[in-house]
Specification:
Protein name: U6 snRNA-associated Sm-like protein LSm1
Function: Plays a role in the degradation of histone mRNAs, the only eukaryotic mRNAs that are not polyadenylated. Probably also part of an LSm subunits-containing complex involved in the general process of mRNA degradation.
CATH topology of the domain at 2-92: SH3 type barrels
CATH architecture of the domain at 2-92: Roll
Number of strands: 6
CATH class of the domain at 2-92: Mainly Beta
Organism: Botryobasidium botryosum (strain FD-172 SS1)
Family: Belongs to the snRNP Sm proteins family.
Mean pLDDT: 88
Domain Sm: 8-83
Helix content: 10-25%
Length: 136
């Protein structure tokens, strides 16, 4: 009977080892690389990884090499379909072309998040992010 119960823990990652994966982190970064190892906390080791920066239909990759990711920072993990990877309608550009636009987007998101946090704190009684009891 236990064999019919699907994995709902990090054990379900066993089929993903040695495959090309995309990982989205809590801070919004997107990493693409080959999953080499993981543990019970879903800490991941990516090899030959790149950080992909998007803006519209344009993207640039920053080589990162071997990348260790703490499991609590993983928002999304998915396998890259190698047969469809080259058919994605994205246009590669130089890093110098996309970095200034990306930095503007990050700053705009930071301002929006700060404004939302202020409204949630002042009008709805939520605590501030990073406040007391939020440390590890």
């Amino acid at each position: 009977m236990d064999a019919l119960i699907p994995f709902t823990t990090s054990g379900s990652l066993v089929d993903c080892v040695d495959k090309k994966m995309v990982v989205m982190l809590r801070d919004g970064r997107k990493l693409i690389g080959v999953l080499r190892s993981y543990d019970q906390f879903a800490n991941l080791v990516l090899e030959d990884s790149v950080e992909r920066i998007h803006h519209g239909a344009h993207f640039a990759d920053i080589p990162r090499g071997v990348f260790l990711i703490r499991g609590e920072n993983v928002v999304l993990l998915g396998e890259v379909d190698l047969d469809l990877e080259d058919t994605v309608p994205l246009i590669p550009v130089t890093l110098q072309a996309v970095i200034p636009i990306h930095l503007e987007d990050l700053e705009a998101r930071r301002r929006r998040d700060a404004q939302k946090a202020k409204i949630l704190y002042e009008q709805h009684g939520f605590c501030r992010e990073g406040g007391e009891g939020d440390g590890y």
